[in-house]
Fold this protein.
Amino acid sequence: MSRMPSLFVSHGAPTLIIQDGPAHRFLAGYGAALGKPSAILVASAHWESRDLLLSTAERPETIYDFHGFPKPLYEIVYAAPGAPTVAARAAAMLRDAGLDGAEDPDRGLDHGAWVPLRLMYPDADIPVAQISIQTSRGPAHQLAVGQAFASLRDEGVLIVGSGSATHNLAEFRGQPVDTPPPDWVSAFANWTYTMLSEGRTDDLLN
């Protein structure tokens, strides 16, 4: 099996899944372009914890971790099977690298996971597990975590980071879906792209 990429996707507001727009259409065609992975491991911005956790649920529930949105969103179920074996292996790989990595048998899929995945892989037939993030430990910790289980990609596992590169709901609310991004958003996105393209890891971590 060929090596799967690692991705960072912006899952936007939960309405991304029911509202047409450029990001909706891109994600809806992206799964077919990538091909079908053996499993998916998602780090979502909506699961933060003090200690690093990996979900090992056999049938992860669909978590509606948002309020005040249209009723159809609360009727969507993303019934993908869990990926407990992949999650347990990732936890072991983290421990081998000197990092904590405990298993959570009850955690479901929050909207940072199921919103983009339902667009990318609507059949919900690919096993999915989530990994929590530890914001307080900083970016160097996140990089070390990713490096510890990066070899899962060689086994066909798609690793996805889901969140937003920038986040300011005060500026976002009430804007049409095709509103051009503010200059500060474009500037930061372009800077990030340049750092990644040039391999300037130290600048990204600082």
Remarks:
- The chain has one domain: 6-164.
